[in-house]
Amino acid sequence: MSTPFYVSPQQAMADRAEYARKGIARGRSVVVLQYADGIVFVAENPSRSLHKISEIYDRIAFAAVGKYNEFENLRIGGVRYADLRGFTYDRADVTARGLANVYAQTLGTIFSSAAEKPYEVELIVAEVGPAPEDDQIYRLPHDGSIVDEHGSLAVGGNSDQINSFLEQRHRDDMTLAEAVKLGKESLARDNNGGERELTADQLEVALLDRSRVQQRKFKRVLGPQLRRLLGEDSSSGGSSATSGSGESDSSSEGDAEE
Amino acid sequence: MEANTRDTGRLPAAFLTPGSSSFMDFLSDHAPDVLPGNRPLPAVEGAVQAPHGTTIVAATYAGGVVLAGDRRATMGNVIAQRDIEKVFPADEFSAVGIAGTAGLAVEMVKLFQLELEHFEKVEGSALSLEGKANRLSTMIRSNLGMALQGLAVVPVFAGYDVDREKGRIFSYDVTGGRSEEVGFTAVGSGSVFARGSLKKLHRDDLTEEQVATVALQALYDAADDDSATGGPDMARRIYPTLTVISDEGCRKLPEDEVSGLVRAMHEGRLEQPNGPKAPLS
């Protein structure tokens, strides 16, 4: 057997990081924005069933970019972690911080274990609190580090550009419609400063709405409601006039999650 | 490269194993001792004294189904609790009412709610109503050992079937046997009297308010003849719980609404202590 070449640990880690980063950069982005009543997630995702944004627990949601099978695996692990914790203690004892820590440990171990291929994923774990200042957003890059974020945030493909676009325009007291529109505009930026046209059909939008009466604050924004929020619904004049109250209508209409 | 290979803080393998959407399957894999059915049964002689929940009634109406429960828990001849709640929402479109050993039943319901929610989150879509009913069957069966020692749990499961667009009721026996009921059912110690009452009062074309009154009448009749079923406690303002499930989801009627219905029924009973009379033919 031949002796393997010596690779310095720095080089080995740099190679793994490079590998993971390239995988993540291939995917389309997800943006997360705080708005007046909670946190909204906007992703470019033409699929109706393979979600990038999902519910983890009452107040906690999950968004991810990168390889679907890898983040789906982590998502299910997170749901199991949250449900088990809520079952053994209480629903109030499931926190985004706890979940983000477990994800960070998991990603970190996988990243530094030579036997495993690093995960090509970047995760967001967000929790909506009773008041805007209690909202928490954590970003979890592929290497197991954990970043506490506020306001607005993008991960995935050209996240740097989207982030700088968002930074200039995002306010914490935006309405839902403003936040979703800003999310869409930011995702429409492409690498060389140009802009593409994105429609409601290409977007996956979900929110953690603190004003929801139900215990589970997560809600997907689908079809007609999304078009109305984006102002694409020009068919009837009446609907745009009621779009403000329409949000509260739909939040009380129950957990039609799918 | 791993500094600590034994306990790295990462999610254990069971968490990341793909395949099952069931929380109970996950528990039996990862933490079997937490599952209610897996506890070793100590040998006991005679009946175990533990609070028992009593009567639950369920009845369908034009737009869905209503599930009502009295508020009494008994332990032998003692009233263990006079304001216990025995009807719980299982998810958006279903609810479960429990009769039998209260402690075990509440735990079973908690696990059942979680099982449905877990499936919904993992799969991205809710179980069918039949699927939910079958899941509950499995859970009751896992409690058979306890049931044989006198700690039985017998639930009623009611839900709105969004595919068939109607309310449906499922009743169970201690072995997990499941049967779908047409129109109405009752379980618990006062169920015999409640069912007799429902038989005379229930019709398919009732409105939500009417079916709620029918359920309250049935519970009143059960409390009239069964000492373990609690009637409405006018002095303490403890009234039966009423949960309505329709195409809009599962809704527990607020106390002022229930108290209005109870007071109206009580007024009638002051005139006719045996309740409304059904026509002879």
From TrEMBL, chain A:
Taxonomic superkingdom: Bacteria
SUPFAM superfamilies: N-terminal nucleophile aminohydrolases (Ntn hydrolases)
UniProt keyword list: Cytoplasm, Proteasome
CDD domains (UniProt xref): proteasome_protease_HslV
Physiological role: Component of the proteasome core, a large protease complex with broad specificity involved in protein degradation.
Inhibition and activation profile: The formation of the proteasomal ATPase ARC-20S proteasome complex, likely via the docking of the C-termini of ARC into the intersubunit pockets in the alpha-rings, may trigger opening of the gate for substrate entry. Interconversion between the open-gate and close-gate conformations leads to a dynamic regulation of the 20S proteasome proteolysis activity.
Biased composition (Low complexity): 232-249
Protein name: Proteasome subunit alpha
Cellular component aspect of the GO annotation: proteasome complex
Organism name: Streptomyces daqingensis
Family as reported in the entry's similarity comment: Belongs to the peptidase T1A family.
From TrEMBL, chain B:
Annotated pathway: Protein degradation; proteasomal Pup-dependent pathway
Naturally occurring in which organism (per UniProt): Streptomyces daqingensis
Similarity comment text for this entry: Belongs to the peptidase T1B family.
Broad class of where this protein is predominantly found: cytoplasm
Regulation (activators, inhibitors): The formation of the proteasomal ATPase ARC-20S proteasome complex, likely via the docking of the C-termini of ARC into the intersubunit pockets in the alpha-rings, may trigger opening of the gate for substrate entry. Interconversion between the open-gate and close-gate conformations leads to a dynamic regulation of the 20S proteasome proteolysis activity.
Catalytic activity: Cleavage of peptide bonds with very broad specificity
Location in or out of the cell: Cytoplasm
Protein known as: Proteasome subunit beta
Taxonomic superkingdom: Bacteria
Pro-sequence residue ranges: 1-53
